Structure of Pyridoxamine 5'-phosphate oxidase family protein:
Amino acid sequence: MSTLPSPQSKTTATPASRRSRVKRVPDRGHYDADTIHAILDAAWLCHVGFIQDGQPVVIPTACWREGEHLYIHGSTKSRMALALAGGLPACVTVTLLDGLVLARSAFHHSMNYRSVVAFGRFEKLDDTAKIAALRTFTEHLAPGRWAEIRAPNKQEAKGTMVLRMPLDEASAKIRRGPPKDDEEDMTLPVWAGVLPLAQGYGTPEADPLLAPGTPLPAYLRALTRR
Amino acid sequence: MSTLPSPQSKTTATPASRRSRVKRVPDRGHYDADTIHAILDAAWLCHVGFIQDGQPVVIPTACWREGEHLYIHGSTKSRMALALAGGLPACVTVTLLDGLVLARSAFHHSMNYRSVVAFGRFEKLDDTAKIAALRTFTEHLAPGRWAEIRAPNKQEAKGTMVLRMPLDEASAKIRRGPPKDDEEDMTLPVWAGVLPLAQGYGTPEADPLLAPGTPLPAYLRALTRR
C-alpha cells in the first residue's frame, strides 16, 4: 500500500459520471488515473459483470492494463467473450484485500481494501493488436517470460479473443488505516487494530514433466523472492 | 488446496440449472455442496452483480456462509443493500487465486483458482436473525472475537442490513495442477510449472490509540501464526 500515489493528485479528481461516483463513504472515493492504474496493475484478475437473458452474470477472469484500457482475453468459444465482443454494457471490478480491521465494537469492524469499478463496453482487438496485447499480458504475469516461450501459432491466435474496455468511467475506493471506534468505546479492554492480509508467492512448483536440468530462470527467482 | 474435499463426492453432483452449468472447460465444474462451501468458507469477500438502470453493477463486499446460504451486510443507506433487499436477481461470485500457471507456450499459460458463481435473490433478515448473523460474521473474521467486543446497540443494529441468498443455484470451477502443454512443446528448454499464490496474514498492527498494555489476544496470535 505504500506504493500508492497520494489520492486525487492527478487528472480526473472528480467522477466521470453519476454512476461512477462513490456513494457510500464518499471520502473513500478516488477518481484520478494514477490511483486507478496502480490498483489495476497490482491485480491478476477482475470480475466482469454483464447481463444475459435479463440476469446479471459475474465471471472472474485474468486482466491487465495498458494505457487507458483494461484488457481481458478468452476463447473465441467463450460465451462471455462473445457476449462482450457484441458491445454489451459491462462493469469490471477489481478488488485487493489489504487487511481485516478489528474494532472495539462489532459495528466498526471493517476491511482495508483497494477496489476499482469501471463501467463501459468492450471492443475486440484485431489480429495484430491481439498478439501485442497477449505479450503485454504475459509480461504482466512474469516480466521476462515472453522472450522465452513459444509464441502463439496461427491456430491458437485464431482461437483467442482479446477485448479491451476504456477506463473513462472508472472509480477507485480505498479504505486504509486503523479502526474508527466511538469515543465512549476507546477505553474498552479489547485489542483493536488491523490484521494485514497480503497475497504472496510460494515456492515455484516445477512441472513434473519438466525436462531434467531446466533451471528456474532469474526473472522467476526474482519474483518469488520479493 | 489440500483441504478441499474430493470433487463430486456429495449431494448436488449435477448443475441445478442451465445457467449454473460450467460451459467453458466443463471438467473444471463442480456442483456438490462440500466443494462449494469449502470455497466460500475460505473467502473474505465476494463480488455481487445486479442490474441498476439497465446497467450491470459489480460491487465487492464482505461475505460469509452459514448452512445453505451466503450472507452479506451493509448500511441500510447502501444503494446495493436496498436494491438487493427488493429481491432483484443477483449473481454472487467468489474467487480464490491459487497460482500462476506458466507453460512452455504462451497459449497454455493459465491460472490455478477456485471460484463459485451463485445465482439467486437475496432476502433481508429480521432483527433477531440479524444479530445472530453478525455474530457468525465476526467469528468468521476472527474466531473468538465476538465474546470480547461490544455488541451492536439498537441504533447500530437499526442501521445495518443483513441479507442472505440461498445456494441452490451455485457452481464451483477449479483449476489446479501443472500446465498442460502440447506434446511437441514438451522438450522446449523453458521452465514450466506453477508460481503458487496465497493470501497470508502480516504482523498485526495495533491501533495507535490502543489503551497501553492491551495484549494481542490468543485467538489472534493463533490466526497470524498459521
